UniProtKB/TrEMBL annotation:
GO molecular function: metal ion binding; N-acetyldiaminopimelate deacetylase activity
Boundaries of every Peptidase M20 dimerisation domain copy: 185-276
Source organism superkingdom: Bacteria
Protein residues bound to Mn(2+): C101, H103, E137, H161, H360
Cofactor: Mn(2+)
Gene3D superfamilies reported for this sequence: 3.30.70.360, Zn peptidases (3.40.630.10)
Note accompanying the cofactor annotation: The Mn(2+) ion enhances activity.
Annotated InterPro entries: Amidohydrolase, Bact_exopeptidase_dim_dom, Peptidase_M20, Peptidase_M20_dimer
Any single GO BP term: diaminopimelate biosynthetic process
Designated name of the protein: Amidohydrolase
Pfam families named among the record's database cross-references: M20_dimer, Peptidase_M20
Keywords, alphabetical: Hydrolase, Manganese, Metal-binding
Record organism: Sutterella seckii
Amino acid sequence: MTLQDLIEKYSAYQIEMRRYFHQHPEESTKEVKTAERIREELDKAEIPWRVCGMGTGTLARIEGKLPGKTIMLRGDIDALSVTEKTGLPFASENEGVMHACGHDCHISMLLTAARMLNDVRDQIKGTVLLAFQPAEEIGRGAQSMIAEGALDGVDACFGMHVWADYPAGTVGIRKGPTMASGDKFTITVKGKSTHGAQPHHGTDALVMAASIVMNLQTMVSREFSPIDTAVVTVGKLTSGTRFNVVAGDAVMEGTTRTFSKEIRDSFAERITRIAKCTAEAMRGTAEVNYEYLVPVTTNDPKICDLAAEAVTKIFGEGKVVEAEQTMGGEDFAYYQEKIPGAMVFLGIRNPACNAVYPQHHMCYTVDESVLVKGAALHTQTALNFLGAELK
């Protein structure tokens, strides 16, 4: 059976699965029904699996006829707290939850790849693991799977993300640092509430918080080299009770991004210093909680080359593009800290089917026609790594 035979055989299955998971999204750590359907599909194909990661993660295993190396293919399964506005006939049935980052595509491509690989397992030398990973959006799923043995005996890993920045039918690949680290910070400001007409009797936490937000912006412009890349964003600020009351407290939540381990390691101290000193200068206090979520996604050159060869075989010449670095983060990076791996970007942008919106947008959708080739890319990359050729 050739790769083209597999693509034709599973094209309809790929779309069926994608639409099912798109219609039934579940948030991080709550992917119960998603996991049930994944396991049901694996059982239908007689592919063995075990629970791995937070109870909703699933690790499937396809053994080749001959012994050899082991590669793990990964697809994340969680959705976002976004209200869908696509108008698609298979739009989300779960109010306020949507696969707005394409994880429905990742699940269905990995399930399709599982069937493809299972069909040709007698030609495989080695083992392919398929990791259906929970909780990527909160940066916790990969660590949970690693803790439960997902990487035991594994030699390499490969992941794929559908990506709206690239035209459908192209694949973005970049060697080395590709996706930034992504962490979260929370700043709690304490002041003293009073009547809005008598601000001198209180200590305005809202003004302190606003000042902290502005002062944090000078960190990137004045504390780091202009050559380095870093982002500090305060995405949420909650303060105050009504229009004529000076706020007694405020809470801010934000994120940091960088490609530098040294800068990442310095963020907590810098944010704490700026927040505390700003609040103290205005007669208040500030406390900072810094959470390390995901490290830098760093692609192994050899795995990238194997993936590029697979892209050319499946999509044709000229379909590999050099991916730009993105400040988006991925907990796939935790696998790469343990073993060589690559995360590539499958282009799904196509104005003809309204696939023009960025990740996390309420109208996000994809060009479904390329997804079965994405499944084939999983398959061929695994075969390339294991040194197997389809007859």
